[in-house]
Every structure is written in C-alpha cells, then in structure tokens.
Amino acid sequence: PFCRLGARELSSIKPQLDAHNVRLVGIGLEDVGVQEFVEGNYFTAELYIDSQKKAYQALGFKRLSFFNLLSAMFGKKSRDAMGKVKEQGLGGDTKGDGYQNGGTLVVSQGGEDVLLCYKQDAPSENVDPEEIIKALCIPQNPPQEVETGAMSAESDKSEKFTA
Length: 163
Description:
Blueprint: H1 2-11, H2 14-19, E1 25-28, H3 34-39, E2 46-49, H4 54-58, H5 66-73, H6 76-87, E3 103-107, E4 114-119, H7 129-135, E5 145-147, E6 160-162
Parallel strand pairs: 1-2
Antiparallel strand pairs: 3-4, 5-6
C-alpha cells in the first residue's frame, strides 16, 4: 500500500513537471501487481520494471532484513502512512518483494547533475513532492486572487480573496 501512496503523491506534481518539460519516470522492481497498479492509476507517468534490481543496487537503495521490515511496519511513520492509505482508499496488498526499499532521484537535463537523491529508510517513507519542486527550481504556484463578484449597493468594487 505504501508504493501506491508514494506513487499517488508523486503523480500530484505531474502537471507542474509537465509545464516545465520535466519527465516523471517510475521504476518498479517486479511484475507482481503491476497490472492492478497501472489500472488503478496510482502513478500517472512512465513506468518501467527493473526485475533484476540493477538500478536499485546502483543507487544504493537498501534491502531490509525481516526484523528491520517488521519493526518499520509497526512504527509511527508506518501507522501515519497507513492512515493516509485508508483515507484515500488506495487499498494494497503484501504480494511481492516488500524488503526492497526505493527512493527518488532527480537529475538535471541530460542527466549530468544529481539535484536530489532520496533513499527510503522504511517502506512507508517517501520524498515530499515539494522537495522535488524545490530541487528543480520550479516556482511555487503563488496564491491567486479570486473575484467573488459580490457587489454592495454602496460600492462598485468587487471583493477579492486569496486562495
């Protein structure tokens, strides 16, 4: 379920990335559950499978032991993340390799510079999408003024609110 949550959170910034010609690419580690993952639209970008986990090894993404996984699953961060999973109705299962942690890598155009390298310490931890936006120097969306169209008899000015 944590993969679905992380994928959904990353997908939330895809419109901002698209607006700045930044590709969002996901690399899964196995075919188990991929069809359901794709059909559920948890990740709305390019998705590849690295069944030999070469990218995971090259990036130093760690593999948990049984005891590390067990303690990580019952920690506060996991409970909080599970609450988000349930709140968003993401479901999930425990099929597949739950021992392999992943992360997020942001590279400059052409791949010459690493702008952000986030490595999970536990399966429930994911990079904050705003960290990706910052690493790419994409300006935050400023609050926009919204006209309500409310007019009073004494004034011909419409009220404005910041959203």
